Amino acid sequence: MSTTPLNSxxxxxxxxxxxxxxxxxxxxxxxxxxxxxxxxxxxxxxSTSSVHTYLRRLDEMGLIEYxxxxxxxxxxxxxxxxSSEEEPVSADVVKLNCIGKITAGQPIYAHxxxxxSQYVNKSIIGSDECFMLKxxxxxxxxxxxxxxxxxxxxxxxxxxxxxxxxxLIGEEATxxxxxxxxxxxxxxxxxxxxxxIPFFDTEECKILGKVVGLHRYNIN
Length: 220
Fold this sequence. Notes:
Elements: H1 11-30, H2 36-43, H3 48-60, E1 64-66, E2 74-76, E3 93-103, E4 108-109, E5 112-121, H4 122-125, E6 130-136, E7 150-155, E8 164-169, E9 172-181, E10 184-188, E11 197-198, E12 205-215
Parallel strand pairs: 3-6
Antiparallel strand pairs: 1-2, 3-5, 4-9, 6-7, 7-12, 8-9, 8-12, 9-10, 10-11
Helix pairs in contact: 1-2, 1-3
């Protein structure tokens, strides 16, 4: 990682600083990252190739995570050297932690991983307590929940029939649609290649929350 400071007097360093400040403000105001053309306009730059170069440089400096080839795929890392405080965020935006991985396939062992977070507009979650989980698998593709998506989950321990929920079966976590089969509760996939999972009223079966939205980096 380079140690060149952002406040260097060089022309390129000043451009990098403008790009970084614009990306910060855009994400905080809009709860998603700007496109390269947005950055060109907002930072007063003419060349999209220069913007790509500056974003890669910011990634090397540890200030952002940049994923070339994906649309709007910039993550603020809040890791400026010497800073221990969170960046100020718009009143309309809240930061949600991703607490682990959940499967849209066969259930997998539940685990916590607080290494990732996303900014979400409060219009999606209101004042509710929410968290995020990263999806692995394809059993919910007909509900437009894809492998690699981050689902936004409103914390609750009850749900209505037809709700898409994050649930635990023992120590295994999954995302499915809650429903009933022959009067008994099941978790239903949204992919004909998968079978419903019994979700009986026992200590082994727990509702983590209702899925209220998702965050996606890439659109195929």
